[in-house]
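Entry 12.
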Amino acid sequence: MKSVCVLGAGSWGTALALLLARKGIPTVMWGRDRRFIQEIAQAGENSRYLPKAPFPSTLTVTSSMEEALLRAEIILVVIPSHGFRKVVRQAAVILKKRAQPPMAVISASKGIENSTLCTMTEILEQELPPDLSGHLAVLSGPSFAREVADSLPTAVALAASDAGLCASLQQLFSTDSFRVYSNLDPVGVQLGGALKNVMAIASGISDGLKFGTNTRAALITRGLAEMTRLGIKAGANPLTFAGLAGLGDLVLTCTGDLSRNRQVGLRLGAGESIDDIVKSMSMVAEGVKTSRSVHELARKYDVEMPIASQVYRVIHKGREPGDAVRELMMRPPKHELHGVSFC
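Predicted 3D structure (C-alpha cells):
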C-alpha cells in the first residue's frame, strides 16, 4: 500500500488527506504552523478550515516537512499559488537526500504564479530533482472541499503526460464517492482550474449587482470561450475546457455558495473594497491574485479576454463594477466562435 504526504493543511488539503486516509492509505498531512498543527492533532479534526470531519487513525499531521516526506511514495502539493514555489523548494532539499525518489508528485493547487506566469507543474519541474520530471501530475475539477469531506458524489480530472502514471493515480484516488477521470493534458487542466476562479469573481460581481441569471449564464458561457482561446494559444487541448477541469469547475465556482471567488465578486458588486474583502477572509481566494497573471498571459499570447480584463481592472485598478459590465455589453459585435477552434 502506497504512503502519501499532503503538503498543505487548508480545507482542500485536508479533504484530500481524509479521502485517502479513509481508504486505509497511510497519509501524513504537513502544515507550516506548528501551533495550528498541534491544535488539530489534539482536536482530531481541522476545526479551523474543515470542521466536523474527524481524522481516521490512518491520518497523521506534522509540522516537520522532513518527517512528512521521509517515506512518502506519493506527494500531493496543496499550497496556494503565491506560496507554492517556496514550499516545493523546501521539499526539494529533503527529496535530494532520499535514496529512492517518490513515485509521483501531484499538484492540487489552482493558480498561476504572478511573477513568472508559471503553472504549478512548471514550478515543480524547475524546483524538484530532475529524476522527478516524468512523475508529475495534476488533480483538478469541480470539487468543494466540504462536499468531498462529507463523501458527496464528486467527479474530477487527473492529468499527467504519462498514461501509465495517470492510470495508476486514477486508481489511488478513486472511491465510491470520488470518481476520477484520466486526462493527458496537464496544461489545459491547470489553466482551466486557474482561469475559472477569475470568471467566478465576474459571476459574483454580476450577482452582487443583482443582474440576474441571464447575465450569469452569459458570463459563464463567454468566460469559457475566453478560457479556451487562451488554452489553445498555450498549447492545451481545447476539448479539455469542455470537461471537468474546464466547464465543470467553471459552473461550480460561478454558481456555488461555497465558492470563495464568487463570494469575493458578490462583495465587490455590493460595493465593498477588495482590500477590505481580502483582509476579512481566513482562506485564500485564488482568483484575486490569478486575475493579474491571466491579464499578463493574455498580453503574452495576444489573446482577447474582455471578461478577465475587466475583473483585473476592478480588482487592481479600482474600476467600478457597474462600469465594467456596461463596457462588456457595449463591445463591438463578434462572431460567437471568434478565436475558438476545436479542430
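Annotation: Residues 274 and 315 are 6 Å apart (CA to CA). The mean pLDDT is 95.
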